[in-house]
Automatic annotation (TrEMBL):
Main location, first listed in the record: membrane
UniProt topology in membrane: Multi-pass membrane protein
Organism: Alginatibacterium sediminis
Residues that span the membrane, as ranges: 179-204, 225-247, 259-281, 288-308, 347-365
Gene3D superfamilies: abc type-2 transporter like domain
GO molecular function: ABC-type transporter activity
Keywords (A to Z) from UniProt: Cell membrane, Membrane, Transmembrane, Transmembrane helix
The protein, known as: ABC transporter permease
Domain ABC-2 type transporter transmembrane: 16-362
InterPro entries: ABC-2_transporter_component, ABC2_TM
C-alpha cells in the first residue's frame, strides 16, 4: 500500500501534475476574471444615418450620445452603415428618415429603423434596450408637449395622461446587472471542472504505471491517492469561491459550510468519473479525450446563460452527468437565496450518487489485475 508521503513526492516530482494541483488553476481563475473584469459593456459602437437633419433628429442623436451604453458615429449613406455592420466595425445602425420632424407634427408616426447584430447576444440586447428606452423617452416628451399645448394642463397631469400606468422593474439578484458576476459565477466553476477531471485522469494513469501490481491497483492505495489529490482540488475550489465572494465582494447570503461540502462532493464525483474512465478504457489518451468531451459543455448546461426549461431532453440528461452543474445549482441558490439545506438536498443527492460510479470503478480492479497477470 502506498504511503501518503510517497504519493505526495510522486505528485510534486511531476512538474505537470504539480502545476495542475498548485499554481496553474490560480492563473486560470485570475485570467478568466481579468478577461471579464469589466462589469458593464459600455460604449457599444452604433452608426446613425440622419436623413432629416432637423431639430428633432438632432435631439434624438444627442440622446444616443448621452447613453453610457452607446458610442455614436455618423454616416450619410445607408450602404456604408450596412457594410460596417457586416464587417463587425459597429454593433448596430439607425436610420432617421426624411421629414421626421414634419411627420411628427402632422401625427403621421414616422418610422426610425434600427438594425443590430444579433450574433452578439448580450451586446445586441444592450443596444436594443438602450435604443428602445431612448425612443420611448422621446415619444413621451413629444406627447406631453402636445397635451400641454392644448391648454393650461400641468406637466404632471399631462405626463399622467400620456402614461396612465407606470412600471417599475427591479432586479432582486445581481441588482446592478453586473456582467462579470453573471459570467464568472459559471465560467470559473466550468474551468475548475475541467481541471479536476483532467488532473485526476493523469494522476490515476500515472500511478497505474508503477511496477508493483499490488500498489498500483490496491484499493487502499487508490483511496489514498484520491484523498491526497482531492484535498488539493478542494483547496482550489475554496480559492475560486473566495475570489468570487470575498475578493470580488459579491454577496454570499447562504451557508459557507454547505458550499464547502458541495465542493467536496463535486471533487469526489469528478474523481469517480476519472477513475471509471481510466479503468474502463485502460489508455490515458482515450480517457482524457472522453473526460474532456463529457465536461467541455458544462458552462452551457449550467442554466446560467440559457434557461434549463428550454433545453432539449438530451441536454438535460447530459447535464446530469456533469458534477459541476449540480454544484453551481447549490452555489447560486446559497449565494442569492440562502435557503435551508433541504432546498438543495436534490443537488447534493445527485452529487453523492456519483459514489456508485466510484464503486463500479473499484469493481473493475480485480478484472484489470487478472488481465495484466495473464499478459
Amino acid at each position: 500500500m502506498m504511503s501518503y508521503s510517497l504519493i505526495l513526492r510522486s505528485l510534486f516530482n511531476d512538474r505537470w501534475l504539480y502545476s495542475l494541483l498548485s499554481w496553474l488553476p490560480l492563473v486560470v481563475f485570475l485570467s478568466i476574471a481579468a478577461i471579464f473584469s469589466s462589469s458593464f459593456a459600455r460604449e457599444n459602437v452604433i452608426m446613425v444615418v440622419d436623413q432629416d437633419n432637423s431639430r428633432l433628429s438632432r435631439q434624438l442623436i444627442r440622446s444616443y450620445h448621452a447613453s453610457p451604453n452607446l458610442s455614436v458615429t455618423m454616416s450619410s449613406n445607408i450602404q456604408t452603415a450596412k457594410d460596417a455592420l457586416v464587417k463587425g466595425d459597429i454593433y448596430a445602425y439607425v436610420i432617421i428618415p426624411n421629414d421626421l420632424e414634419r411627420d411628427v407634427k402632422r401625427f403621421r408616426s414616422p418610422l426610425v429603423q434600427s438594425y443590430y447584430n444579433g450574433q452578439f447576444l448580450v451586446i445586441g440586447k444592450q443596444v436594443n434596450a438602450a435604443l428602445a428606452g431612448i425612443h420611448t423617452t422621446i415619444n413621451v416628451g413629444i406627447d406631453v408637449g402636445r397635451v400641454m399645448g392644448t391648454g393650461n394642463t400641468p406637466a404632471l397631469q399631462a405626463f399622467g395622461s400620456v402614461m396612465p400606468i407606470r412600471a417599475q422593474m427591479s432586479a432582486l439578484f445581481n441588482s446592478n446587472n453586473d456582467y462579470a458576476q453573471f459570467i464568472l459565477s459559471g465560467a470559473l466553476p466550468a474551468a475548475w471542472q475541467l481541471i479536476i477531471v483532467l488532473s485526476m485522469v493523469l494522476i490515476y494513469s500515472k500511478f497505474l504505471k508503477t511496477e508493483s501490481l499490488e500498489n498500483k491497483r490496491n484499493i487502499s492505495s487508490i483511496l489514498r491517492i484520491s484523498l491526497v489529490s482531492g484535498a488539493m482540488l478542494v483547496l482550489q475550489g475554496l480559492v475560486m469561491a473566495c475570489l468570487l465572494f470575498v475578493y470580488k465582494g459579491w454577496p454570499m447570503r447562504g451557508d459557507w459550510s454547505l458550499i464547502v461540502f458541495a465542493q467536496v462532493l463535486c471533487v469526489m464525483a469528478s474523481q469517480a468519473i476519472a477513475l471509471f474512465l481510466v479503468f474502463l478504457l485502460k489508455d490515458r489518451t482515450r480517457a482524457l479525450s472522453f473526460a474532456a468531451a463529457l465536461t467541455a459543455p458544462s458552462f452551457a448546461f449550467m442554466g446560467v446563460t440559457f434557461p434549463l426549461d428550454s433545453m432539449p431532453t438530451f441536454s438535460l440528461l447530459w447535464r446530469q452527468l456533469i458534477p459541476i452543474c449540480h454544484y453551481v445549482d447549490i452555489q447560486i441558490s446559497q449565494s442569492n437565496h440562502a435557503p435551508a439545506i433541504v432546498h438543495d438536498a436534490d443537488s447534493l443527492l445527485k452529487l453523492a450518487m456519483f459514489g456508485l460510479l466510484f464503486l463500479a470503478a473499484l469493481c473493475l480492479v480485480p478484472q484489470v489485475q487478472k488481465q495484466e497477470v495473464q499478459a
